[in-house]
Amino acid sequence: MSKKEDEHIPPLQCSRRLFLKGCTIAAAALGLSEVMVPRLVEAAANPQRPPVIWLHFQECTGCTESLLRASHPDIGRLLLDLISLDYHETVMAAAGHQAEELLKQTIEKHSGKFICVVEGGIPTKDNGIYCKIAGRTAMDILAEVAPKAAAIIAVGSCAAYGGIQAAEPNPTGAVGVQSLVHGTPVINISGCPPNPVCLLGTILHYLTFKRLPPVDGLGRPLFAYGRKIHDQCERRAHFDEGRFAEQFGDAGHLQGYCLYKVGCKGPQTYANCPVARFNDVGVWPVGVGHGCVGCTEPDFWDTMTPFYERLPGVAIPGGDGIVTGAGSAGKKILAVTGAAIGIHAAVGIGKRLVKGKKEE
Ligand code: SF4
Ligand code: SF4
After folding, report:
1. Are 199 and 153 in contact (CB under 8 A)?
2. Would you give the end-to-end CA distance of the chain in angstroms?
3. Using CB atoms within 10 A as the burial measure, which of 142, 155, 276, 301 is most buried?
């Protein structure tokens, strides 16, 4: 990086080293070449930091906790330096009427310019009375804030798709942001919780290119959710050779074999976990021996459970093909789809079919 570019970097709360490291991580996550790093740095170092209103609705606050935990402080700190976090109930000092006044002022002062981050689902049943803040429902707050935001980032699977509270029978009628907001761009950073790198990349893309990154059909940024876990997994060679852990702790598990038979949902899950990994030590769930539970997919609490049973409809190389039980719902669906099913094509039709299938 040239001295001139270096001069763009303001006196940040996080060190210059962390700042540059964060921009480099984001560039890699975004699939940009290293030559783009100075441009990201320049955008990130702009003293006009975008105001952000972070709304908490029906959730466990796990996304914020994950972002701020000591296990990956660099990215959390960097994110807080990139934006002006004007309203965030978990971390702001203000409380009560003072906090609500702050929200009102921020909306008025920065109308059309602020980013709204939403964490949590929004209950809609009975006029949304199951989540209230300062006497107002989450629905009302979102209806007031969303039209005035420049863009909305739905962080976590609750904000994206309703989350665990939307699992059957969804007693509060919880939905994700996109079901209620129309006219303001919304991007979904799904995951339970999402990898902070995905949020960092999205914000840096917005700051650098003045628009949200391209998304898939579920509103998720393609740079992070464009490929299946299965297609990026270091255990994939074992899958392709038919080497599986049959149960946790067996010889196959100890040798790092594929976790499909002990419930890994990687063949049906789109996320960058095998590449982005978590924390500074660079681990991810499948890498340390636990199957992916599919947390980035809509309705995963209903569609990916039981977590420790295998997905139906995934062809095992070298075996006799499709894994599904006679008489199971899976088999009926598979009979309709017939020969179109392959290792890759078969995934995506197995949803809601795990229960009731027979062991191979
Ligand atoms: S099934 Fe899971 S463990 Fe096996 S290769 Fe696919 S993602 Fe990796
Ligand atoms: S490995 Fe699967 S369950 Fe784990 S965080 Fe990634 S997408 Fe979610």
Report:
1. yes
2. 56
3. 155
**Smallest CA separation from ligand 1 atom 6, residue:** 230
Q: Which of 66, 189, 229 to mutate to test the pocket of ligand 2 (most atoms within 8 A of CB)?
A: 229
Rounded to two decimals, the pTM is 0.84
Strands 315-316 and 321-322: antiparallel
Rounded CA separation 25/219 (Å): 22
pLDDT tens digits along 161-192 = 999 999 999 999 999 999 999 999 999 999 99
Give 201-248 pLDDT, tens digit per residue.
999 999 999 999 999 999 999 999 999 999 999 999 999 999 999 999
Q: What is the percent of the chain where pLDDT is above 90? A: 62
Cβ neighbours of 321 (radius 10 Å): 15
Ligand 1 contact via 245 beta carbon (within 6 Å): no
Whether 259 is in the pocket of ligand 2, judged by its Cβ within 6 Å, is no
Look at ligand 2, atom 1, and give the residue with the nearest C-alpha: 292
